[in-house]
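User: Show me a protein chain along with its predicted structure.
Assistant: Here is one chain, sequence first, then structure tokens.
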Amino acid sequence: TSMAPVGLIGFSSRWRECLATGEGSDPNLVEQFRRLAATLHHAQQNNGLRSVMVTSAQPNDGKTLTAVNLAIVLAESYRANVLLIDADLRRPSIPQAIEFSDGRGLSEVLRASHDQKLALVPLTTRLTLLPAGQPTSNSIEALTSPRMRRILDEAAERYDWVIIDAPPVGAAADAHLLAEMVGGVLFVVRATETPAPVVESAIKGIGRDRILGVVLNAVTDTAPGYYYYSPDESGTNPA
């Protein structure tokens, strides 16, 4: 059965306060995500970038909210058709933000004995969610399977953008392996909380050539928000 669009009103009140859209949104937050979306749009125009994985070195650094806001801004500001994939199969965070009745998602599709139709959830006319489904402790094999690669390839053909909320790099090997299947990686760092050696190790594990840039989250010298940094010419990140 098809599901009715839940719209952004389907987000919990706690999450709506942090979204880069709607009345009452922090103008600074909205501007930072518009800048990030503009950078990615420019990259798409130059080299055909279509799929972006969002990850972090550790949990609670803000990767999921970054992925959600980026998907929203790309859909709204650029009128792009965007697929947001919750690929954190061990600890999916998006179900905490959006209430929908069907518990099926990516996990069930990847573990099925035969190909199944994706359980897509329309959030707006241009933004679609592929939920993680039921959490699983053994997700590495599923996420790196030919079926997962096929899902990503087909999504990149169907949608203007595919944004993947991936597991934290430090928590599992999934993010390292999944990075090889996408156009590039955005790495989220929480200001004053994510240790520099942990960040350095995580970026090295992904591969510096896969990193599109670093998003510094929860900066407190002005207003809490997100700031985007591109890797410099030497291939290192200023974060």
